[in-house]
């Protein structure tokens, strides 16, 4: 296994230090994901830009967090699974939906279940989503625009989940305390 450097504000300089400082100010702490991902500053910049764009989608924030969690679980990313359970709670996602998704149980909320299942189908089928899955998503009240926005969700989760597969960050105490 390749060991990646865990960067801190103290061990960084220049653009790297500025990015980490900005992230720490935004979150109130430095998520360990970024301490490793900063090895490639452009990857961090891409992640931050994609995250800003996610906030502009037409998908309501609670369902956005459910989809991010679904992608993280499907991609087997422990760090992001903890992060989106914690952040999802803060962003108004239904705790019952987050818990059901995390435990592999049926999600009771129709909207949450539809976006979770569609996101998982998108990943499992590498974008070749079966028509029945697409129709189930649309029948739950989602739109064609939101199909394309789920692709954006899968994109950001591919970047962070795959980075985490290599770097294996531990969930921060701050995230764990939000659960």
The H/E string reads HHHHHHHHHH
Based on helices, strands and strand pairing, what is the structural class? mainly alpha
Q: What low-confidence regions span 5 or more consecutive residues with pLDDT below 50?
A: none
CATH superfamily of the largest domain: AhpD-like
Major β-sheet, in short? Answer: none
Determine and state the CATH class of the largest domain: Mainly Alpha
Q: Based on the structure given, which CATH architecture of the largest domain is correct?
A: Up-down Bundle
Q: What is the fold-level CATH name, i.e. the topology of the largest domain?
A: AhpD-like
Count of DSSP strands? 0
Number of helices: 10
The number of distinct structural domains comes to 2
Quick check: average pLDDT? 97
Helicity range of the residues?
Answer: 55-70%
Shape: globular
Q: In angstroms, what separates the terminal alpha carbons?
A: 30 Å
* Percentage of residues in DSSP E strands: under 5%
CA-atom Rg in angstroms: 16 Å
Task: Give a written overview of the molecule.
The chain has 179 residues and is an all-alpha fold. It folds into 2 domains: 14-54 and 168-178, no CATH class; 61-165, AhpD-like (Up-down Bundle). Helix content is 69%, strand content 0%. It is built from 10 helices and no strands. The protein has helices at 14-27, 32-37, 41-54, 61-74, 78-90, 95-103, 110-124, 131-139, 144-167, 173-178. Helix 4 runs parallel beside helix 6 (95-103), helix 4 (61-74) crosses helix 9 and helix 7 (110-124) packs across helix 9 (144-167). The two termini are 30 Å apart. The mean pLDDT is 97.
